[in-house]
Design goal:
The protein is an alpha/beta fold. It is built from twelve helices and 14 strands. The strands form two sheets. A seven-stranded antiparallel β-sheet has the order 4-3-2-1-5-6-7, covered by helices on one side. It has a seven-stranded mixed β-sheet with strand order 10-9-8-11-12-14-13, sandwiched between helices. The longest helix is centred in the C-terminal third of the chain and has 22 residues. Bound molecules: S-adenosylmethionine (SAM). The site of S-adenosylmethionine (SAM) has 20 residues, from helix 6, strand 9 and helix 8.
Length: 395
């Protein structure tokens, strides 16, 4: 990658008009854990330096690098194998694409607007005290020195893995200008804030987000947190999920629900389907509704007969409940995958339903399979009740 390194030295070091370099686009085969890297010139104690900002899904780190040490640092950046680099200088920009065969394609954008750059280190101070990285500390996940607190490690891993999956759903850089997201059953807002931060700061995407919970106290606490962050297009609303009326109806790109209790997951799926959410990521929590139905009206087909083995009935209930959910999603025109999204070490509630909207047509055989499965187990899932009440499906 000597050719790329030469261009970067020329445009960043030997160029007094250099403003910013943005590295983005991750190759699937890359082991790199950063989603984006920014390089900007800064002046610290009267010395010209370069500030490297490394972003992953939930955090970022900043390194101020002396010009003489640029070559070592840039080698690490190049080894991350980003596919797209934008080099902005005053009046012009250079878009670099790295092909799968490591060919370096450069396109120059001439006559861009002039930008007045404040290289003072105060800029960095402002950013740290405003919104950029400190949300993890505000949530009580990280301590003041930026380290994840030992008792919050599992929560941190849960949101980190969740956001990795969001980041891989599509190429968000190429997606439409603004991404609209609904988070259902947000609790303390851990996933909400991490998701908002990912779009707004890690990939610099315009985001509108609505975050709902039935618990007015939790929403009040979350609202006061975001006041400090100044995240203007994040709306926490008190509502039960099913009767929530989204601000941006029918134009939802992603619906997320992490551990929305029991049938709150069904409400989240119904809300997503009703509003034609392009993507849905839902990690169900307790499955009491179906477990209860199985215990109280056991199927003759069930191989688990004895009440004594309650844990097996419970686990069976979990699987049946999520199977019915994905079947209903497919009836509603979604393609689905069920994955274990994180190891059991971090949470045993780790099955994720991942769905993507493809079409509105209802394939007849999917309806028949669903009906057969449901009558085999003698259950009626909440999601079916909600979808029929809202006239979204007729079975
Ligand atoms: C286990 S917490 C999960 C919080 C968060 N998603 C997380 O994983 O950190 C479940 C949340 O769902 C909310 N909830 C439960 N049923 C709900 C419903 N029907 N409508 C809206 N929120 C609901 C609860 O108030 C609670 O805050």
């Amino acid at each position: 990658m000597q050719e790329l390194k030469d261009i970067l030295i020329q445009e960043i070091i030997n160029n007094s008009n250099f403003i910013k370099a943005t590295f983005s686009g991750i190759r699937r085969t890359s082991n790199n854990s950063w989603n984006k890297i920014l390089i900007e010139p800064v002046i610290i104690k009267d010395k010209n330096m370069l500030q490297f900002n490394y972003f992953d899904t939930v955090k970022s780190i900043t390194k101020n690098v002396e010009i003489e040490k640029f070559q070592t640092e840039i080698n690490d950046v190049i080894s991350c194998h980003f596919t797209s680099i934008y080099l902005r200088s005053n009046n012009y920009g250079k878009q670099i694409q790295i092909t799968k065969k490591n060919k370096v394609l450069v396109k120059t954008h001439k006559n861009l607007d002039e930008v007045i750059v404040n290289k003072s280190h105060d800029k960095e101070k402002n950013r740290i005290t405003s919104s950029k990285d400190n949300y993890l500390e505000m949530l009580g996940i990280a301590s003041t020195d930026g380290k994840i607190k030992p008792n919050m490690h599992s929560k941190y891993k849960q949101i980190d893995e969740f956001i990795k999956i969001i980041s891989r759903l599509t190429d968000w850089n190429e997606y439409k200008d603004q991404v609209n997201i609904i988070d259902c059953g947000v609790g303390n807002g851990y996933l909400t804030l991490a998701t908002y931060n990912y779009f707004k700061n890690a990939i610099s995407k315009d985001i509108h987000m609505e975050a709902i919970d039935i618990d007015a106290g939790a929403i009040e606490r979350n609202n006061s947190k975001i006041k400090k962050l100044d995240w203007e297009d994040l709306h926490f609303e008190t509502s039960n999920i099913i009767s929530y009326d989204p601000i941006k109806k029918q134009d939802i790109d992603l619906t997320i629900a992490l551990h929305a209790c029991d049938t709150a997951t069904d409400e989240a799926l119904c809300l997503a389907i009703e509003n034609k959410s392009k993507y849905i990521l839902s990690v169900p929590c307790c499955h009491h509704d179906i477990q209860f139905q199985l215990k109280n009206n056991p199927s003759n087909n069930s191989i688990i007969k004895s009440e004594k083995h309650g844990i097996l009935i419970e686990r069976q209930g979990d699987i049946i409940a999520d199977t019915l959910r994905y079947m209903l999603l497919e009836i509603c025109g979604y393609s689905t995958n069920i994955i274990q999204y994180i190891s059991n070490d971090h949470t045993s509630k780790n099955i994720m339903i991942r769905a993507e909207k493809h079409n509105d047509a209802v394939p007849e055989e999917k309806i028949n399979e669903y009906k057969e499965f449901k009558s085999f187990w003698r259950v009626k899932p909440e999601l079916e009740k909600l979808l029929t009440q809202k006239d979204i499906i007729k079975l």
